[in-house]
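Apologies for my clumsy wording, but can you show me some protein sequence, whichever is easiest, together with the matching C-alpha cells, please?
=====
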Amino acid sequence: MSVTHDTRIQIRSPASSAQRQAARGWPDLNNPAAWIVAVILLIMPLIANGFFLIEIFATTLMLGTIALSLMFLAGYGGMVSLMQLTIAGFAAYMVAVFGTSDNANISLGWPWWLAVPTALTLATIFGTFGGALAVRTEGIYTIMITLAIGAAFYYFTNQNWAIFNGHTGINNVATPHFWGVNWRSDIPFYYVVLAIAALCYFGVDYISRAPFGLALQGVRDNPRRMAALGFNVNAHRVAAYAVASFIAGLAGVLQVWNYRQISPGSVSVGACIDILIIAIVGGITRPIGPYIGALVFVLLRTFALDFLVKIGLDGNRFRLLIGLGFLAIVFWSSDGVIGLWQRWRRSQRPQSDRPNGGRGHG
C-alpha cells in the first residue's frame, strides 16, 4: 500500500499547482460562459448561412481537432509533432482509396462504414509507427523527424500514381447517405463535425486526469524519475502518439468528406506547420486552446485574403498577417490566447485576491 501511495505522489509532484489546474481543462461546466458557448454552437445553423456554417465554423472545428492532437502530445507529453496533419491526410487518402470516387481504377468501392474504420486503423498504425521513431530522440531532433515524415509523405503522394493518383489527387469521394439523410449537406455535416470535435475535446480532457494522462505528464516533467519508479517512458510516449493519431485521423475523415477530394496540397509541409501555429496561438496547455487558435487562423485566412486582394496585394500574403499575429501573441504570452485571457482576468481581480498578494508566482 505504501508503494502505491508514494508512486501517486511522485507522479503528481513534478507539476505545479497551476499546471494541475490547467490540466483540468476548459471550459468549466460550472461557468455560465461555457454553457453560452455550447448553446451558440448548437443553434449555429439557425443564425449562420451555409458559408459561415461550413467554411468558418466546421473548418475551425476540423483544424482545431487536428491541432488538439498536437496539443495532447506537446502539452501533456512534451513532444512537438509536425506530422499530425500528415496523419489526418493519410486517413483521408485511405477513405478515398477504400471508398468510392471518380477514380474507379484506384478506389475499391467499399461502403463508408467499412472504409472509415479501416482508414482510422491504418492512420493510427501509421502515426504510432512514426511516434515510435520520434520518441527515440529529444528536442529539435523529434521535431525534425516528424517534419521529415510529413515531407516524405507529401512527395510520395505527389509522385505516386498507382495508389494516390499523383498531384491530381482523388476527386468526388463519396460521402455517407443513410437513414434517408445526406450527411454531407450543410446542417447534418456541421452537427457531425461538432459531435466529433466535442468527443475528442472531452476525451482529451478525461485522459489528462486519468492515470495514463497523469503518468504521461510525469514523463514530460521528469522522465528519469518516472523510469526509476518503474514506468516504461517510451511506451507511454508511443501510446500518446497512438491516441493523438486516432484523433487526427478522425479529423482527416471529416476533411475528405467536407471537400470530397484529397490531394498532395492538403498535406504539404506548409500546411503541417500551420497546425503548429494554430496550436501555439490558441495555447497548448488546455484542450480548448487549439480550437481558439483554429478560429483565429480560419478568420484571417478567409477575410484577410479578400482584404489584401481588394487593396491590390497578393492574397497569399495573409500568411504575413498570421506570422505577425503569431509573433505578437508569443511575445506577450507563452500560452497563446488562453494565456492572454488568463492574464487579463487576473488583472481584473482585486490585488488582495491575487496569488501572493498580486506579486506573482516565485
Remarks:
- The longest strand covers residues 177-178.
- The beta strands are 177-178, 181-182.
- Confidence is low (pLDDT under 50) at residues 1-26, 358-362.
- DSSP finds 16 helices and two strands in the chain.
